[in-house]
Amino acid sequence: MRKRPLTVVFLDVDGFISMHNPADHNERFEMWGGLPAFPIPIVNQLLRGLDTDPALLPVWMTCWDSRAWKWNERAGTRTFPVAYYLSPRQISRAKRLYPDLAYKGYDDKLLAAAYFLRKYPNVGVVWLEDGFAWETAIYAEVKGWKLIDVTVEPLPTILRHPWAYPDFAADSFIRHFIKGEQSEYKGIGFATDYQGYLAEILR
Hints:
It contains 8 helices and 7 strands. By secondary structure, the protein is an alpha/beta fold.
C-alpha cells in the first residue's frame, strides 16, 4: 500500500511522455488501440521512478483518461490514479465545490486538478503539461503549485534524447525537475548550466 505522498505529480501524455520528433514524424510512432503514440526514450524508466518514489503520487491528467494505464502496463508499474476526465456526476460536484473554476472557457483540467486534490489538502503539487492556460497559471501561483511546461527548452531536447543510461537519466530528471534537487551525474545528469550541458551531450 502506498504511503501518503508529500507531492502529487500530475502527468500529461501527449507532448510529454508521447512526443514526436519534428524532423522525423514517424520516429518511435506506434498505434495503441487507435491512438497514436510517440514514446520518449526514457518513458519506462521515468514512470518506474515515479512509481517507486514514496514521496510522490503520480496521477494521470490527460485526455487519454484511463487508457493512460496502457503506459503503466508498458512500463511494468502500478496503475496511477486518473484525475481527468471527470464523469458528469463529478463535474457537477466539482462545480459546486469550486465555482470560481467553473466559468465557461476555463481549462477543465484545472477543475479536475482541484477536485482530485480535495483529498490531499496539504501536499505539494507538480504538474507536467505541454502548455498551461492563463487561469491555471494564476491559480497555481496562488496555491503554490509548480507548473512545468514541457514545451520549453531544454525539456523537449532532454526528453527526446536517446540516453545511453536511461535509468540514470530518468532518475536525474525526477530529482532535478520534479523534486527540485540539485542532482548531477557526470555525462548523464542535468547540470544547472543547461546550454553548456546540452552542447556537451549533444555534440
